[in-house]
């Protein structure tokens, strides 16, 4: 499904990722664990095309992904939940979710209906402005937005950071339920305290390098 092969990336000439390689098989949930500044967010952004890689390759479903533009990657069924949520404050919840469909020129709203079934609480405050929600509720909305386009691959960057325990548990419940949908998921966090029960494999990243691939984490 997703193959990252020896990619390197620098920001303002400072090396951030150094020969990073990992593989995620179809329908599996993988953890990416590392401290703040280890390179987790940079890796997620490189997969999405927000940051260009300097060398190496990224393949998705046997296609060269590292040469595709960011919006083209979303159109391939890749959903992304950024660490800082990136909601539009004055948009309603539903408008924020639909942004991903607008960006890919998709008019099919069946995926939105599925998201509301998966997370009924989202539907209950669909008409509220994003800025009126708590941080945890905003994470749920950002996850819903990612799910609308992420029919194949879901990238979740620090979904539990700054979230109250009850909402963190709800987020983890939703992520766990995705296994039945055959979705491929990469979830990053500082440790896998929250996701330990659902991940099939854990990659550790330190100073921009993958140091451990633990296949017995689940």
TrEMBL record:
Keywords assigned: Amino-acid transport, ATP-binding, Nucleotide-binding, Transport
A Pfam family hit: ABC_tran
Gene3D superfamilies tied to this protein: P-loop containing nucleotide triphosphate hydrolases
Family: Belongs to the ABC transporter superfamily.
A molecular function GO annotation: ATP hydrolysis activity
PROSITE patterns for the chain: ABC_TRANSPORTER_1, ABC_TRANSPORTER_2
Domain ABC transporter: 2-218
Alphabetized SUPFAM superfamilies for the sequence: P-loop containing nucleoside triphosphate hydrolases (SSF52540)
GO biological process, one term: L-amino acid transport
Full protein name: ABC transporter ATP-binding protein
